[in-house]
Structure formats: structure tokens, C-alpha cells
Amino acid sequence: MSQPLPRSLCVYCGSSVGNDTRYVEIAQEVGKLLAANDIRLVYGGGNVGLMGVVADAVMANGGSVLGVIPVGLFATEQGHRGITELVEVASMHERKALMAAESDAFLALPGGLGTLEELAEILTWAQLGIHDHPVGVLDVDGFWQPVVEFLDGAVAAGFMRPANRSLLRVIDRVEDILGVLGAPLARPDTPLLSPEES
Hints:
- This protein is an alpha/beta fold.
- It is 37% helix and 16% strand.
- The chain has a single domain, classed as Rossmann fold.
- It starts with 7 loop residues before the first strand and ends in a 17-residue tail after the last helix.
């Protein structure tokens, strides 16, 4: 049994385009997919890097985009004035909280420390029961495999429960995104996080 497709998908991705044109192509495909399925893009509001590529692709294909950007980042991440709605906030904390509140699924594309930090935080929130929305990574050419291996290692070392590990969905192809993120969460009867876990 599947759940309804997300109405708004939060996409985390790099403020650079990387050194392989495939990253740009994949980001464009994601934007087209969202627009074609009437799914609003929620993202960090920038007009640079893969962030700008995804937003441009959604807009070019008739979709809707909500960008959220802290005022202080405008020197390095220019706010995208060509999207449906751009909201300026005062801090990174406000940015991430608003992006989460406006989304009902989360997807990470390739990126750097910021992307990794956002992914880790939204997974932690799921682990703590703060939200129950699906979280996935688009594993372009194995980009996210080191993170997957880290999580598997954390389970093997006793720092993470298998149920918590299963919160991250690994997606290999753009065409599989909606099917994977549309699958219901498997929630165990016991809490996902015990007091001694961090």
C-alpha cells in the first residue's frame, strides 16, 4: 500500500554544480519530474549550483517553487528572484525549520557539507519522531555510498538501530523517486530512539 505522492518535496543539494555534467542533468530531470507531477519544490532559495538548476527546471516546466534563504547568505548564495515565492529569514535555523514545515518528503542530491548536514538533521528529526515524512538520497553514480556505508557501520557497531537505519531510502534513478518516497514508513512498535542513543 502506497501513500499519496508528496505535495511539496524538499530538495537538499549543492550550491556548486560539481565537476561532472551528469550532476546538472540529473538535477534538471528532478525539476522536470516535480513539475510534471504538480509537486512543489521547497529548497534553499539560491540561484547558484544544483540549487539553481533544480529550481530553474521546475519553473521552466510550469511548476511551483518555494525558496527559503537567510538574509546573511546573499553575499555567497544569491536569492533566486525568478521562482514562485522567495522567503527571507534571519538564520539558518529558521531556514531549515521553515523548509521542513513546508514539506512532506525530503530528497538529497549530490552536494557538500551543507547538504550532508541538512540530510543528517532531517534524518535525526525522523528518528526522534519530530516528523514522519520519507527521506531519501538520489545516489547518482554511487555518490551517497560512503554515507550509506557509515550508517551500516554505525548499526554494526551498536550505535544505531536497524529501524533507524531504514529511515534513509536510497534511490538509484530519477524515475524511481516518487515510487520510493511514496512508500509508507515502517514504524516499529518500540521507540526508534532509546535514551542512551545519540
